[in-house]
Amino acid sequence: MVIVDARGLSCPEPVVMTRKAMADKQAQYQVLADNFLFFITKSALFPKRSAIVKQK
Asked: Which residues are CB-neighbours of 29 under 8 A, at least 6 positions away?
């Protein structure tokens, strides 16, 4: 599993980091982000990927 820690970063940086991590072609990814705009952008850029959103 690839873990991308994008907490504290603003868009589009979390999206760019996620895209780079996906180049590894792993089966699972965990993206830690606290920017709500990232989740909206993620849905548009990666429509075939599912996401589980947990809020703390």
From this structure: 1, 2, 3, 4, 18, 21, 22
Strand partners, 29: 2
Burial class (CB in 10 A: 0-12, 13-18, 19+), 33: buried
Angle at 1 between CA 27 and CA 54, to 5 degrees: 100
- Per-residue pLDDT tens, the chain, 56 aa: give them: 888 898 898 878 888 888 888 887 777 888 888 877 766 666 666 666 655 555 55
